[in-house]
């Protein structure tokens, strides 16, 4: 069963949070509310998020300061941040948002469909990364001689486990390729394209490591250096 991704919604106005939930409910993911920058940072201490929608203007710790704290933490620095603002901003204001680590900067009122489409891309990338980590963990178990203890594979021989790993990886590779083509077609944000490219590089490395485990390809000593 695929676990749902978590999306963090940060805004000090309850009506704005309610509107975001209405827009993003169609994605069928877990939406987490935070009414301040401090509350958002607290949520990020314990949970993993696919993307953060962050209001710029908030009392106390504003969106820029909140983003700076997020990017300074090793655990959260790679989470995509989409800034939402009602300010009639100029180029300098927009630059400040990107400098704070945002992958996008959207002015209110925004097109609900556009926001939902942007968020869905980062959710999909997050899901692919989760699948990739699962395949890497199973492969690591095999390399360490613990393949028999892998989830759902306790009765499988090494060859059978390799075949299962290969099939699972192939499914992720196919989905990642389709996502990359979709991003190219839609002229998506540079950050999303770069994240997808990084995912594909990881998949390529994992495929090479898995291929090296196949009978007749030599020892697995060369594989460990690729993980």
TrEMBL record:
Keywords: Coiled coil, Phosphoprotein. Pfam families: Response_reg. SMART domains: REC (SM00448). Residues 162-189 form a coiled coil. The keyword Secreted does not apply. SUPFAM superfamilies: CheY-like. The modification 4-aspartylphosphate is found at residue 55. Residues 6-123 form the Response regulatory domain. Transmembrane segments: none annotated. InterPro entries: Bact_response_regulator (IPR050595), CheY-like_superfamily (IPR011006), Sig_transdc_resp-reg_receiver (IPR001789). This is Two-component system response regulator. It comes from Streptomyces coerulescens.
